[in-house]
Queue: 2 jobs
Job 1
Amino acid sequence: MTRAARRAAIAPLVLVFLASCSRDAAAQAGLESGRLEISAGAAWLGSQTFGSASATETTSSGGTFSLFNTSSEMGSAWAFDARVGVRLAGTLVVEADATFARPELRVTIANDVENAPSITAVERLQQYMIGGGATWYVPRRNRIVPFVTGGGGYLRQLHDRALLVETGTYYQVGGGILYLLSSHPGNRLKATGIRADVRAVILNGGASFDGGRHTAPAVTGSFFVRF
Amino acid sequence: MTGRWFGRAIAIATVLAIQAQPAFAYLEFGVTAGGTQVKLRWPQAAVRYLVTNASVTNVPVADFQAAIARAFASWEAVPTASITYQFGGLTAALPGRDDGLTTLGFQNRPDLDRVLAATSFVVDAATGALVESDIFFNSAFPWSVAPSGEANRFDLESIALHEIGHLSGLGHSALGETELRAGGGRLVTAAEAVMFPIAYAVGSIAGRTLKADDIAGISDLYPTGDATSVYGSLSGRVTKDGAPIFGAHVIAFDPVTKTVIGSFTLNAQGQFSIGAIPPGPRILRVEPLDDAEIDSFFDASRTVDINFRVAFSDRIVIVPRGGDSGEVAINVVAK
């Protein structure tokens, strides 16, 4: 991910954080009530560029002769996201999270030596991200609570009909807001709400052609219940 | 006998000792033994060879033998292939004689004015196993064994590397580009297989290094114990307007390692197969066989379709570990 793209991904996160901090609504219990938080929702994972490569042959002087060029990327994709969090102390929550997506791996082929038309070859992956992290909610009594979050875990990407498995790791950092829909500190179900966050996700290894790290933005919206 | 041709030559694969034809892989010889098609290969792990005790201008016997040894060592160093070679000493015998000895040496054949070197075989007709294979280097051409090559001389190690590929059972690869010369013949623009039938120009030593295509070929013929579980294969079918075509050249590009490996459609169903390749994604490109003479690859009885446009598969093909990709269908259109 370029520096500009990374900046673009982080900017909305900062805006969300600042906007939510500036609100001053009626106090609500709920932020610190309940110990277990379960959430499920949808995420959008941004695309990652894997760079370009050329199919070449060797000339008699040891140089290269290009047959065609390729540029590769993992397309953006919708994902299912689930989390289970346990409040450790105050507003610090440790979480386990799992995300499933089916992004498209795309290779665009161009500049063929025999003028074959350009084409994009595709393949749909199954991508699993299973890991953990921590979320810190800004201490305030409000329906809208900003938070920052970070973590990482295991990346598993399955090619075509699970013919080949690629593994790696991921790390993520970001923040967002939590909006309390209901709060019943005396009940077993102590609170419900929705949560939205923006993250920078760094994938390391996996199906990446260069085996390197690639950063993509991610946006998640989920519904949560707290016990 | 199958030979290596120099830049001006029209490449052919002349077969004397056996009926050579590509097997169901990319670049291997096949023979019919006992009514069935088998791959031409050595039955034993170590192939013993002799070197003719005769020098030519600019190439003393010791240097000749050393260059040959380096070429054998290159093939032997392929980690996923089990074949080994053993130098049995110098001999007065000449290559090309049916004497049960695998012999490499010079012969002066000015009549073969486009043949730099050639490999011949003696095959057990019952089993299809190689019994003997000889290589002759045509001393009518100028040769070099200099480490950096020499202007106006052909690099002996490069040509030996190619011929030893034949000696081991490999046929020609079509991974190369040529251009027609005004005076006839072809000039190699580039190649990505030592087993490309036309040699680099004089002075070049670019042919001393095995490429992914060569490595896959020798690994498919002589896999090491764990190669079959670690490596995989891909297969598919090429059609033109729905009808299968024979002799289409299929290139598999690995975007991870940036290497290419070639194959052909080799039957009436238009099917191809590439074995012993590392798992991972591949981009498939299909092209007509137009960078060398068709009889460098197939015997004259086969009709090879070259009337179609280059095309790519629209899917990324996955080579699994220890398995096959499943059939990949590619359709091409006529020129």
Job 2
Amino acid sequence: MKLALSLLLATGCGQALAARLVIWMVGDDKTPRLMQPAVEAYRARHPGVAIEVRDVPWADAMTKYSAALASRRGPDLITASSSYAISLGAKGALVDLNQAAPELARELDRHANPGALRAIRSPDGVLYGAPFDMHVQLQYHRTDLLARAPADWDGFLATARALRAQGHGFAQQWGNTNWLGFYPYLRQSGGAVYDASCRRAIIDSPEAVRALTYYARLYRELQAPTDGWPDADGGLESGAYGLMQSGTWLLSRLDMTHKGLVGKWAAAPLPTGPTGKRTAVLGGTVLAVMRFSPNRELALDFMRTLYQPEVTRRMAEAALQYGGMWLPSGRQDQIAALPLPHRQALLDQLADAEGPPPCPAWMRQDYIVTRAVQRVVLADGDPQTELSRAAAVMSRALAVQGPKP
Amino acid sequence: MIWRRHRRHLKDALLVAPFFALFALFGVWPVLRSAWLSFTDYHATDDPVWVGTRNYAELFADERFWTALGNTATYMASVSVIAVVLGLVLALNFGSNSRLHQWVRVAFFLPAVAGGVGAISAWKWLANSEAYGLFNSIRAAFGLEPARFLGDPQWTMPVLVLVGVWSVLGYNLIIFVAGLRAIPEDLYQAARLDGASRWQQLLHITLPNLRPTLVYVSVTGMVASFQVFYEPYLLYGAVDTLGGPLDSALMLVTYLFDRGFRQLDLGVASAAAWVLTTLLFGLTWINLRFIGREGAR
């Protein structure tokens, strides 16, 4: 929390404050500004409540949250990456919205992005938070080098090969050579990491093997960079890459950070796989109430306020005004009305996106899938062998420990 | 009688008491607490539950722990040896008060002052896979294909060692220069009168007299290398992965961080911390026992 934006509103400063609601948001120093419309709406209903919104850097979030949990003090509300929110919830850190705010849970069922909602709901139906914002992967390409982005797996390889012959490569940025980069291909081929009960790993299915075989071709045939986070946007500007895959945050940033790209790029959904699906990873954050919050009811009421359509709309517009992009995963119905760049590509991809496996054990097993992917991509391993080995290790651990985090 | 004898020390004790209180609170207590936590099942959300040595058994059965230990040992040995040898060579060649030597020392010491996140980010730029990364630009000048410095497990350790040596070399150089200046000039004059060559002077005067400095630089360098965290974390880590390609950048502290603050296995993380502490004690003891004893002899 190097930089914190405290939104202690001065209205009603003559009266004693009844309570203080503390919200920690993962992101940078601009992130708390996003909350301003929700804070204003909430303050109109609860003039005696002070609200403090702080930013927590992504890299430090779990450290801060675990320290807060250990001390039984800290924020009332947090935003947390959807990658680890379910793990936090299963460890008892977060309030179950089904129990605490059933009407809000029903509202989310109606309006939230289904993939985002699945990612925060445990196999036994516990809802550990509300989808807050989201990002998905998209294809970005140079329009002066490529008229249209490829539509399916075969088309993608053919297009990327042709670009490469002209000296323009391909790069995957978000999740490159780890489970997150592989996950869209797994889902597009009809595979999954776990069965529905989260008690058995099925990452060695024929669909998964097919996906990993294809994924490895991006590196073996197209010589895509294997860095953890290649400079794909810089490469798109320089022409080193003609085609790349990264997150939707670039939609609002590319023109600002790469002046040479203005008017020379376009975005498109991911290519479809053998099942006809174009599933992307759905990342982002969830908004959740901490179990130890002394202001649980106030915090839940803040959530109810935030998910009112008018409030989420104002938040999304506020984000655009400061050059960011906030896609309210809890009110996906609002997105179509926002003046977003490349909106249709975004909407098409949001309609087919899945979060990380909603299994509590995933957080401690994700590296096993990453290792299998890297053994194939970096060490020429055999997809079937590596995925079978991964599935065996994961299932063995699940048999011993159960599906707990 | 006793009270009167010790009364004059009361003021002194009161003056140092705040330090000892803070040291006990923020130094001793967390260490003792982590020792206890290493024998418990603890996830921060509920009270710790005693599980005996289960965390240590789990740790030693974890393939990733051994990978992290192997990587850390390789890194420590490489950085310690290279930084000590190069630091000594530089100190022997740039240890005078001439303006040139002073500037050389400043240049080598700069990374120790200006290191941190910014410097590692610059290294990331230099080593990136794109053809316009500096390292790859140099390779291209020689007609070589771009290398995946940050995406190929074979390059991970050389890159980390390079960054590690770069960041500590200047510090070692300054310490060695101070150590060299403490050696009495009379010894060299006497040796020269006896016809000793420069090599003989180095072997029989410089190195034996420099042993305390060597022990100090080696021990502190090994301890620091063993605790390396932010170089591999910033160069190879991401939100969804910490170990780099095939866990080739996974170090003991990175592993500890992953278990403790990403998976919230604070019991296992505490066990890993105690294994790390024990190894550091062992290494320091070996260093002091062998190099220190040789020095005394």
